[in-house]
Amino acid sequence: MYQLNQASIAGADELQQETGNPYPKESQVKVDLKSVEELNALAGETYDLQDSNGRLIARKTQMYSKGPPTRLLVLNLILSYWLGWLDAKGEHALDTEPVAAWKRIKEAYDKGKQDASKPETIATSEATS
Question: What's the pTM?
Fold first, then answer.
């Protein structure tokens, strides 16, 4: 378990190097400042900016290795790699029916995105857990 945790941290940092983008930690916080530099100096933390109708909107940022969604993504990438390797090495046919691993991974991801627009779906599933 420790090795998987360390791999997710290293993988998340590698992903951040590839993308060159920070991970937004908090949602939009409206600020009356002239620049992100002024905000960073006042807060002592890192923020990025978005311009929304002439108003600056700051988002607190952090390293990918500190963000749960990017760590989970890396864990999924590691496990998907392992499933592919296992399938090819042992001829387990995980990519074809009836298992259809890739199809199931894609369907689960797409369902999560679809359900994100329905807050009652998440609340209902949490209540029944």
Answer: 0.60
